[in-house]
């Protein structure tokens, strides 16, 4: 079997820095020396851009063969000048939403977001999908529309395809962030103000901590393979937002849902950013969707102190690597999906910057 050469290189670099891999190796050989923290934090794009010997030797002379900007640019597939950001929760999407609001003033497009809802359903019935797609399609262009919802295929309803975008985050860090976000005091103050009849949760549930929840085998923190969580939506995983509304997308951490999500990213999404690779993400957004994202890095750089504090939860305590590693064992396909998105982002970045370097 053969694999795209650049994807293989990027995959190897992040695999070699994976915390789960380190935990397994330490368990097998407790005396094995750990590499310095700087090694684990090394990012592929700056490494390749700066001419780092390790990245350059890995890329070799074949580095341009699979880096075609045209093939990696799904923006060209859009049939209307409208960005649809079906945002995943707890991936820095509030920051990206504020960036888009500021960009709308700079780049002259309309900014639209879904209203705050008492019950936010992310998986919709087919008639609900069509209704939402029709509402979005009727917006004046150019526009951006933002909503927590699963990937929706507009062409299925004979409607023009928008420019799909999203952002992902390390899946374990994200689920920890979600756990404490829904328990934050200010979260319930805001919800209660918006919906006065909303009942307050039990104090015992509010005081629950993530480490105890995992180590005690609490059902909330078990993350069992193949189990579906219906109702308002399954916030344990971000791949659901890319897999779609089908029932086959609901079982947790399954190969079928993973492959559907990867297929949507590869064929439909213009850009899927990565929170941990923010600089690369902003650069790719600006290069691949310039009508909407021109100037995004300048806006972020001038307001970074404010933007990084949006929705920050100061009530979230640290979680040990031991507990994170326990959770990672049940998030194998979620981790693979995250790494897939990360590899694609870096390929998009390299396709633009290596091509420019080659031409000059």
From TrEMBL:
Location of this chain's protein in the cell: Golgi apparatus membrane
Transmembrane domains' residue ranges: none
Main location group: Golgi
InterPro entries on file: Heparan_SO4_2-O-STrfase, P-loop_NTPase, Sulfotransferase
Keywords: Glycoprotein, Golgi apparatus, Membrane, Signal-anchor, Transferase, Transmembrane, Transmembrane helix
Membrane topology: Single-pass type II membrane protein
GO molecular function, one term: sulfotransferase activity
Pfam family, one: Sulfotransfer_2
GO cellular component, one term: Golgi membrane
Family: Belongs to the sulfotransferase 3 family.
Protein name as annotated: Heparan sulfate 2-O-sulfotransferase pipe
Annotated organism of origin: Glossina morsitans morsitans (Savannah tsetse fly)
